[in-house]
């Protein structure tokens, strides 16, 4: 089984590498009850993240999410890096491809399927919903060097 490589770590940062995206298939994510998702890796713990979880996943042609799921408190942002597929949220099904961004609210029941002829590579960022406000504007926190 493939593992994340630590590139650097300091007081204000942590850097890791998954390796090349076409090698994501080497990761295995045990889900319990005999279910393992091949080609998926979570990075939050390795990055020492305190406000989000992130995963990278590759899906072979025809492969689909092993289950439909929702969350209690977390939104997810899916970024399609490569390939094409079909995304389902509740009763809506729509095509996605490289460059597609999909935000799903916590209660949205979601799943994804590769409908293409090559691997589908997706990044998913999970974060607490409804916490970003007007006082959090990135420009207001800028430090000019």
The protein's oligomeric status is: single chain
Report the sheet-strand fraction. Answer: over 45%
Secondary-structure element string: EEEEEHEEEEEEE
What gap, in angstroms, lies between the N and C termini?
A: 42 Å
Order of the strands making up the biggest sheet: 5-6-12-7-10
Indicate the mean pLDDT.
91
| Classification by helices and strands | mainly beta
Could you describe the 3D structure shown?
3% of the residues lie in helices and 48% in strands. The chain has one helix and twelve strands, in the order βββββαβββββββ. The strands form four sheets. The chain has a five-stranded antiparallel β-sheet.
Which secondary structure elements does this structure contain, and how are they paired or packed?
Layout: E1 5-10, E2 13-17, E3 28-32, E4 35-38, E5 40-42, H1 44-47, E6 52-59, E7 74-82, E8 84-89, E9 92-97, E10 101-104, E11 110-114, E12 120-128
Antiparallel strand pairs: 1-2, 3-4, 5-6, 6-12, 7-10, 7-12, 8-9, 8-11
Quick structural gist:
The protein is mainly beta and 145 residues long. The protein has one helix at 44-47, and strands spanning 5-10, 13-17, 28-32, 35-38, 40-42, 52-59, 74-82, 84-89, 92-97, 101-104, 110-114, 120-128.
């Amino acid at each position: 089984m493939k593992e994340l490589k630590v590139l650097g770590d300091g007081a204000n940062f942590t850097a890791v590498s998954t390796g090349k995206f076409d090698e994501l298939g080497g990761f295995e994510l045990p889900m319990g009850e005999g279910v393992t998702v091949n080609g998926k890796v979570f990075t939050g713990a390795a990055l020492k993240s305190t406000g989000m979880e992130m995963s990278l996943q590759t899906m072979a042609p025809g492969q689909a999410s092993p289950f439909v799921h929702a969350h209690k408190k977390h939104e997810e942002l899916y970024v399609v890096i490569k390939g094409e597929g079909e995304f389902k949220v509740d009763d809506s099904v729509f095509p996605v491809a490289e460059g597609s961004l999909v935000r799903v609210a916590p209660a949205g029941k979601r799943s994804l399927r590769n409908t293409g002829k090559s691997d589908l590579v997706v990044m998913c960022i999970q974060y607490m919903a409804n916490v970003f406000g007007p006082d959090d504007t990135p420009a207001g926190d800028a430090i000019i060097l």
